[in-house]
User: What shape does this take?
Amino acid sequence: MDRNNPIAAAAYELVQDALLPPAERIKAVLASLPVLGKEGVDLEEPCPICLLSFEGVFKEEEERLSGKERAEKNEGEEQEEDWEDVGGVTKLVGCGHVFCRKE
Assistant: This one.
């Protein structure tokens, strides 16, 4: 493959993405989304998908992370990250929609 040819590089990437199982493709898309902090959103606004306030989304994320840390300390080893175990808030670049990453 000619790495200097942008069309060939894009085609190669599309083929590689198509070969991934659906769960891995979802994980890749979620990982590519930006993660916003509390200062980047209006905490009183609800997520348009799950209708939980963004303040509640951040609180759930903090509780999930602290529970996960306790579980890791008790087990003494790190658990594998699950693609469904995504939290936080994101904003789509093209349209500017803001929503939680858990749904």
About this structure: The chain has a mean pLDDT of 82.
